[in-house]
Design goal:
Layout: H1 6-21, H2 26-41, E1 45-52, E2 57-63, H3 68-71, E3 76-77, H4 81-89, E4 93-95, H5 107-113, E5 118-125, E6 128-136, H6 145-195, H7 199-213, H8 217-232
Antiparallel strand pairs: 1-2, 1-6, 2-3, 4-5, 5-6
Length: about 230
């Protein structure tokens, strides 16, 4: 790996910025990020891992590696291995030789794939660490401050893209939940009026329909509303 010049840095960040601003899906953006990063860093394997908060595990979400063994390696826990440590401490970590590093957990894969030096940088948004980017070389390499700063900039861009996507997904889910509640309330009102039920009775009937028909409350509510509208025709 040769030292990266300023022009290469700008070019890489520009590509990533355009991808983030595009209408690409998150998975495509992450794949582009690791591909561009591998190219600009001269890395033979670059991977982006994210924290699975439910399991507290680190999961590979994107890589340009074609090694099936590397891509399917056992997930690490937060604080475990180099990536787990970088995430836990929220700081870049450099390893000169992963095959001789006591904390590195996959030495067998590293030897098989010819991996030598590693630069691992955490992905953080507003001091919350959500993952990390790993860059490997196939020869012993002393990562310069410039290289660390470039990967840190790329990691920041990736973290923003991931955070924005998650916010959009959460917003969509909240909007759908509100819409479902509105429809359930309307269907409940129809049952109360048409069948002379109390509010709790109408809700229990909706629940029973949902369980018996193996449909969501929203689907049952939509069917009741549709039937009601049809009767009005």
């Amino acid at each position: 790996m040769e030292n990266i010049n300023f022009q290469e840095n700008i070019k890489a960040l520009s590509k990533i910025s355009k991808a983030i601003a595009s209408d690409l899906y998150l998975e495509d953006i992450l794949r582009l990020i690791v591909s561009v990063t591998a190219e600009v860093m001269g890395s033979n394997i670059c991977s982006l891992i994210l924290v699975d908060e439910a399991k507290q595990e680190l999961v590979i979400r994107a890589t340009q590696s074609i090694s099936e063994e590397y891509n399917k390696k056992k997930p690490l826990k937060i604080g475990e291995g180099i990536a787990g440590k970088a995430i836990e401490q929220n700081r870049p970590i450099v390893v000169k030789d992963v095959t001789k590093e006591a904390e590195y957990k996959h030495k067998d894969i590293a030897k098989k794939e010819g991996l030598k030096s590693l630069l691992c940088v955490p992905l953080a948004v507003k001091n919350k660490v959500i993952g990390a980017i790993n860059c490997y070389t196939n020869k012993a390499h002393n990562f310069s401050d410039t290289e660390i700063n470039i990967l840190t900039s790329i990691a920041s861009q990736a973290a923003v893209a991931i955070e924005n996507t998650e916010l959009l997904v959460k917003t969509k889910i909240i909007r759908e939940e509100l819409e479902a509640r509105k429809k359930v309330e309307r269907a409940k009102g129809i049952l109360m009026k048409e069948e002379g039920m109390a509010e709790d009775q109408a809700y229990l009937k909706l629940q029973k329909y949902s369980m018996d028909m193996r449909k969501s409350m929203r689907e049952v509510a939509e069917a009741i509303i549709l039937a009601h509208e049809f009767k009005k025709q």
